[in-house]
Design brief:
Number of strands: 0
Structural class: mainly alpha
Strand content: under 5%
Number of helices: 3
Largest sheet: none
Length: 60
């Protein structure tokens, strides 16, 4: 089974559909994080770059 990547707008639409079905606040809490994790999963950014991003954007 080959991995099929979906576009960011499709991922957001799926997320919104899940929220409508199961409840929860509307929207995406952190769209930049979605872009970063999709980039990591697709191999567009390295794990070390993702870790740097997380450290730079985490509170505390």
């Amino acid at each position: 089974m080959a991995i099929r990547w979906i576009a960011e707008n499709v991922a957001i639409a799926i997320h919104e559909e899940q929220l409508a079905e199961h409840g929860g606040p509307i929207g995406v809490r952190d769209a930049d994080c979605v872009v970063m994790i999709l980039g990591l999963a697709e191999g567009k950014i390295s794990e070390s770059r993702f870790a740097e991003w997380i450290l730079a954007h985490s509170s505390g």
